Structures are given as C-alpha cells and as structure tokens.
Amino acid sequence: MCVQHDYTPKESTKMDGAVQTVYPRKNWSSMVLYNCGHPKNKILTPELVNTQTGAFLHRFTWLEDSEIGSVPFIWNFLVGHNKVDENDPSIQPKAIHYTTGGPWFEMWKNCEFADLWLSEMEAYKKETKQV
User: Fold this and answer.
1) What is the sign, positive or negative, of the torsion defined by CA atoms of 20, 23, 27, 29?
2) What are phi and psi of 119, to 5 degrees?
3) Any bridge partners for residue 77, and if so which?
4) pLDDT tens digits for range 4-33
5) Which of 25, 32, 49, 74 makes the best surface tag, with the fewest CB within 10 Å?
C-alpha cells in the first residue's frame, strides 16, 4: 500500500541541486506498507533486493497498479504539490514529504510547513540536550 501520487515534478533539480528524474509511480515508494502475504511480494528476497536497480524497487515493477493498495495522500503529503484546505480537517497532512528540499537547507528554510519541522528539531535538541 502507498500513496498513489499523480506527480510529475516541474523542477529539473531537487534536494540541494540533485537531478530530478521523472518516472512512472513517482514518489509512490516514499511511504510504503508492504503486504508480506501478497503472493507477488514473495519475490522480494534479500538477494533480489540487493541486486535489483533502484528503478525496479521504487516503481514496484513486479506489481500491476491494481495490485497496489491506496493510502490517502495526507500520509505522504508532498510539499509544493498537495494542497491544504484550512476549512477541511480531513486533508490536513499527517506525514510531510519535502520533495524538492526541506527547511534544513538554507534556500528552503521558509518552505511550507518549515515551522513544524524547525519546531520539532528544537524540541528534539532540548530533549537530547544538543542545544
């Protein structure tokens, strides 16, 4: 199961200048719940996973679309792609995915939901006394 994003990035670079690639099922693999009992997932042995390409794994090449369950987009909310409606609590993000860069990068320090990430970072530092 995953969030089945209909996502084609507009940018040619991502995450601090890395090349952005476009491929089928883009960002589907960024939040996955595997059904280990599904017959087709039995091929995912350590040997196969360690020898296949990233493309094979990230695109779930061994599965048809109809064999992949769907999770609501709020569980893998793509910053800059998915939209929040302040009047609809059912579409508030539960897990935020900074697809092009997050607030830990200087050029993205003011991106959408940066305040939440920075607040959590400060809380973590206080808890672990890293301030």
Assistant:
1) negative
2) -65, -45
3) 96
4) 999 888 888 877 678 888 889 999 999 999
5) 49
Task: Report the alpha-carbon distance of residue 128 to residue 54 in Å, rounded.
Answer: 35
For residue range 51-85, what is the model confidence (pLDDT) as tens digits? 999 999 999 999 999 999 999 999 999 998 999 99
> By the 8 A CB rule, do 96 and 79 touch?
yes
Radius of gyration over every alpha carbon of the chain, rounded to an integer in angstroms = 17
Tell me if the pTM is above 0.85. no
For the chain, give the number of residues.
Answer: 131
The amino acid at residue 44 is L
Residue type, 66: S
